[in-house]
Amino acid sequence: MFSIICVYNKIDTLEKYLLKSLKNQSIDYELILLDNTYGKFSSAAEALNYGGCKANGQYLMFIHQDFQLSSKTWLEELKNYLDNLKDFGAAGIAGKHDKNLVSNIKNGIPPILAGYQITEPEEVMTVDECLVLTTNRLFEKINFDEVICDNWHLYGADYCLSVKKAGFKVYVLPMDGYHVSKGDSFTEETYYPILKKILKKYKNDYKWIYATTGNWSTVYPLSMQILYKKARGWI
């Protein structure tokens, strides 16, 4: 069974997209909704750890309020993939293993394809935070890092790096769907402080970190990388 965990702050968006697409799914699931309309949680890691600790399902799905499943058999198809993944640590429906985005979903308004499409699960370094999957058993050992990810950015990427470091694999699955947000917008004041901490945390484990919001070296100073990207109009 899936435990579907969503922290939301816009009830109309939640109902229009996620909840509507969860109706009449072909398999049972547990739904854990976390209302952050009034700022109860200070970070995604804090909220999702709280929800994850309440979950009873075999698989935990941490999902955004504005994600829409594409069919009534979506969860059933997803489970079939997860049941057959080797050394499964984390998975998603968009991610990176190099400079290319891997994804079958559409996002934005109007909807456009988010990356290059796949027909089989593909191993990646990190997945996009719009949907992060793991097992309940693994989540008991590895939570989202509330110290490093103390706002609403990169908590999924950090989780993937942690499970890979522990010897598990991270996958993007060939599932379609629709994410209203493009997922690539952030403010420098909130994103870069988290990124700096992540680069320091994994500097002895990875030379590069590939995330859906950017590719970053753990060798060169972050300030130098930002200037380089800005000079070329990449950010």
Keywords:
235 residues, alpha/beta, Spore Coat Polysaccharide Biosynthesis Protein SpsA, Chain A, 4-stranded mixed β-sheet, 7 helices, 16 strands, 29% helix, globular
Q: Going across the major beta sheet, what is the strand order?
A: 2-1-3-12
Strand content of the residues, in percent? 25-35%
**CA-to-CA gap between the ends?**
40 Å
Q: Provide the helix percentage.
A: 25-40%
Mean pLDDT: 95
Broad shape = globular
> What structural category arises from helix and sheet content?
alpha/beta
Written as H for each helix and E for each strand, in order along the chain, the element string is EHEHEEHEEEEEEEEHHEEHEEH
- By CATH, the superfamily comes out as Spore Coat Polysaccharide Biosynthesis Protein SpsA, Chain A
The value of Rg in angstroms is 17 Å
Please tell me about this protein's structure.
The chain is α/β, with parallel strands linked by helices and 235 residues long. It has one domain: Spore Coat Polysaccharide Biosynthesis Protein SpsA, Chain A (Alpha-Beta Complex). The protein is built from seven helices and 16 strands. A four-stranded mixed sheet has the order 2-1-3-12. The chain has a four-stranded mixed sheet with strand order 4-14-8-9. Strand 6 and strand 7 form a beta hairpin. 37% of the residues are buried. The model has no long low-confidence stretch (mean pLDDT 95).
